[in-house]
Amino acid sequence: MRLRALLISLFLALPLVMGAQTPANPGPSEPDFTMVVQATFDAPTLAEFNKRVQDYAALRSRLEAGLPPLVVTTDADEIERFERGLTKRIRDARRSRRGQIFADTMKEQLKRMMAARVDPATIAAIMEDGPGEFDVDVNETYSKKYALATMPPNLLLLLPDLPKDLEYRFVGRHLVLRDARANMIVDEIPYAIRCGDCVISHDDEDDRPAVPAARPR
Question: Residue 142's pLDDT band (boundaries 50, 70, 90)?
């Protein structure tokens, strides 16, 4: 009786032992469907970035109180009056320096992500669609004489979501965070993408050459 009970116990335990020791990919010719998750930003850095973005959005909402409400209009002067009023209030309430949104850890991790994910085709799209490079400063208006570059979808999917009316834009190789409501630069990362042979100045917009397949550096 004892022998029978022992044999039954061994029989029931055998599949568990065999299953625990079976390798994930037993044969080199068989596909391995193991999922590998590679995070772009570590959790503390992402949490700090999200907090700073939300704090800015809350500040803007408070400062917007009392301004004439901006309604849907085609009157450019009315839109600019609202933007100037809001920009002045924001400028008076925060410091004019980089790093208020993009902390050092966020800036470095974002640059590494760009170096790994930006291919020549993406760089070419940024250079062709964008305004070229010009001076941008935190808390300053984004001049409307320059185009707004469309963010490549493959990069936008990798970046953290933003509150309404905040957006990522490229100015040449520099990544800026723009407040579309105030038409103002909230923060910037100079040389977010490294590409020595893909620079187009805004002075060359009218006769810019076709962008070569640039080499990320």
Answer: very high
Distance CA 32, CA 132 (A): 44
Tokens of 98: 């980089």
Query: CA quadruple 204, 151, 173, 89: dihedral positive or negative?
Result: positive
CB atoms < 10 A from the CB of 133, how many?
A: 17
In Å, what is the CA distance from 93 to each residue of 56, 74, 139, 177, 185?
A: 11, 29, 10, 18, 14
What digits encode the pLDDT tens for the residues 156-188?
A: 999 999 999 999 999 999 999 999 999 999 999
Alpha helices in the chain (DSSP H): 2-21, 43-64, 76-93, 104-117, 120-129, 153-156
Confidence of residue 39 (pLDDT cuts 50, 70, 90): very low
Domains of the chain, earliest start first: 43-207 (3.10.450.160)
